[in-house]
User: What shape does this take?
Amino acid sequence: MLLKVGSKGDDVKKVQEKLGLTADGVFGAGTSKAVKDWQKANGLAADGIVGDGTWSKMFAVIAARDETGNLVDDDGNTIEINSADDDLAVETASPVVPAPVATVQGLKLEKLKGKVPDVVIAQIPECATKFQINTPLRLAHFLAQCGHESAGFKATQENLNYSADGLNKIFTKYFKTVNAASYARQPEKIASRVYASRMGNGDEASKEGYKYRGRGYIQLTGKSNYAAFDAAVNEDILSNPDLVSSKYPLLSAAWYWNSRSLNNTADQGANDAAVTAVTKKVNGGTIGLADRIKHFKEYYALLA
Assistant: This one.
């Protein structure tokens, strides 16, 4: 894939439609500028050329969060995630691979290999130690929730690449007085607005809404939560929030788990009612309950 000034055809039309341009199929200077702006907003090298990397990111299924925490696509439609579905593309930052897996008394972590990514298994001992997720029952509940919330441990950070229609549908109250089209496909602007002046963030101009957007397998969101998680690690998380997605995607989820006293909920049992109770505390509802139950049973059978 290589589209640049002078390129023509249906692929160019698809890019132009994605960027809200007139889809004439001719890659001119205007299209190049729009591509550069999109690349800059999405953390890519802003060269105005649509290569494989830009194309893949531009047309991935976007895993973002609405105000209730549900995964949605870029038009605001709820995504029902089957965390076993490897065909789902989600925006992700690959976590740094930690040291080899340590043993945890009472937990058969080796049984998870092939079912849970190695990079996740390697992070479990620290979570078990710091937040007492240290029984087969607790760990099975925890991994089932993390796996579902992150689309199979793929999504480690929130992507707010919404269309104008998506913004008006999902974040209606934040776009009553401004034109959503002026924010569309600009994640930094979007997050800075919708997360402004809440969860410990500064106003829209501070851009803290974007700086402290959702990261981790159970998305840590807002400056106040980042500050609280900062106390759990020997890192300056407030100054380096990307560490949550790159180094601590599971530990940040464990911090959230602990902050909601979810070990106590998990201890209720290895049944559907217990998974439902945990899900309500994590999700605020029961979105994806069947998938969460499926994976709880799978993990618990391996760990018990």
Remarks:
- The first strand starts at residue 64 and ends at 65.
- Confidence is low (pLDDT under 50) at residues 81-94, 96-101.
